[in-house]
Amino acid sequence: MDHTYDEKQGEVTFVLESKYYREEHLTQAAYVFAKQASAFMGKTAAGYEVTLKSKTPADREALRRLAGEFLNELISEERRFETFRENKKIIELIVTQALYSARQTPEQEAEAARITREMDPIAEKLIARIRAEEKVA
């Protein structure tokens, strides 16, 4: 993969083939990198052109490392997606079982309603106090 470096601007630009990377994962990797660099992406005939602009002064070696770290994060995003896809059925089963086991008996529902009734006046007082403090501030 070829990189283009602009040390004056603190930028490195490279092209990623779309057959290997998903656009949404590029965006996710860019969010992870938001503290280190601004990411600019555009579609090309070959895939995606990515420009990373370092938020701190960077020489050619620092820009090369920045691009490498971005690509590692992009690979991690791709792998997380694959892992989710591979385990989707198991995740759905676990969530279904958890929701099913969380169903309350009528006695539990009555107890929850009783506690809610007892807490309502306390909650109203707290809300009124917060609103009063907001007016003062």
Q: What's the CATH class label of the largest domain? A: Alpha Beta
Strand tally, please? Answer: 4
Structural class: alpha+beta
Into how many domains do the coordinates divide? Answer: 2
CATH evolutionary superfamily of the largest domain = Ribosomal protein S6/Translation elongation factor EF1B
Return the average pLDDT rounded to an integer: 87
**Backbone shape:** elongated
In what order do the strands lie side by side in the largest sheet?
1-2-4-3
Low-confidence stretches: none
CATH A-level architecture of the largest domain: 2-Layer Sandwich
What's the Cα radius of gyration?
25 Å
Q: First CA to last CA: what distance?
A: 56 Å
User: What is the succession of H and E elements?
Assistant: EEHEEHH
CATH topology type of the largest domain: Alpha-Beta Plaits
- What level of helicity do the residues show? 55-70%
What can you tell me about this protein's structure?
It is built from three helices and four strands. The protein is α+β, with helices and mostly antiparallel strands and 137 residues long. The protein has two domains: 98 residues, Ribosomal protein S6/Translation elongation factor EF1B (Alpha-Beta Plaits, 2-Layer Sandwich), CATH 3.30.70; 30 residues. A hairpin with a 4-residue loop joins strand 1 and strand 2. 12% of the residues are buried. The mean pLDDT is 87.
What's the gist of this structure?
With 137 residues, this protein is an alpha+beta fold. It has helices at 23-32, 60-101, 106-136; strands spanning 3-6, 11-17, 37-43, 47-54. It is built from 3 helices and 4 strands, in the order E-E-H-E-E-H-H.
